[in-house]
């Protein structure tokens, strides 16, 4: 039940971000200055935390999506759906920890370290 | 007082074999959509995880992203096709998912139609825009001076 709520909310959030993300990338067609200026906004620490949240949402949605597929197609899927959810959460943590270390290091060191 | 018992659901044998949830059509659209959500999901894992890894984890991560970075990627047909597939699959998957959510929560016919119309217009605009950007992109636009990829002729 809660995994379903989580799947829905992350799905909508990612979709809305995707609409915006195509728009900001389209600025490459306007001019290098326009693109670089707007993408610069993605590099401050506040946005860096937002990106971390977004990646966390995508990774959850992706692994839980695989779980949904397993429940639908694998004979024993429905029986093990709860264990599969723990698997999703474990994989999510295993993916997010290295990601967060790397991404937040880049975001914060470049901001405070100057460039 | 007569004891009219209430018939068990769908017990009317003359009609029960013909019982259909969706009286409107016999099309397999919803089944295809259901399958598409699963197929596109599996492909999107590869496309999106690759996208995030190359753009955020490799080299200087997000800090390296500027015009030249994008130009360098799209100079290669490999990344053009990658991004094109990701654009189409993610938007169609996301749109179909949001369509399901609208169907679940918007109970009035008018509201449902209005929300879905807005959704389809937004999706069409973004898919067309994104596709045009990938294929009409000029990595060395005339007159530009900053952040150009290294392969552009020096002005
Ligand atoms: C990363 C790989 C992804 C996988 C494996 C995946 C998998 C799935 C699956 C299996 C479903 C359930 C469909 C159904 O019940 O019929 C689903 C629903 C959904 N997905 Fe994804 N998805 C992925 C990426 C995305 C992306 C990038 C978006 C946004 C653009 C998105 C938005 C949605 C939405 C809005 C729903 C509907 C949720 C609902 O009906 O409760 N997904 N996804």
TrEMBL record, chain A:
GO terms for biological process: tricarboxylic acid cycle. It comes from the Bacteria. GO terms for cellular component: membrane. It is found in: Membrane. One of its GO terms (molecular function) is electron transfer activity. The keyword Methyltransferase does not apply. InterPro entries: SdhC_prok, SQR/QFR_C/D, Succ_DH_cytb556, SuccDH_FuR_B_TM-su. The keyword Transmembrane applies. Belongs to the cytochrome b560 family. PANTHER family: SUCCINATE DEHYDROGENASE 2 MEMBRANE SUBUNIT SDHC (PTHR41910), SUCCINATE DEHYDROGENASE HYDROPHOBIC MEMBRANE ANCHOR SUBUNIT (PTHR41910:SF1). This is Succinate dehydrogenase. The lineage of its organism: Bacteria, Bacillati, Actinomycetota, Actinomycetes, Micrococcales.
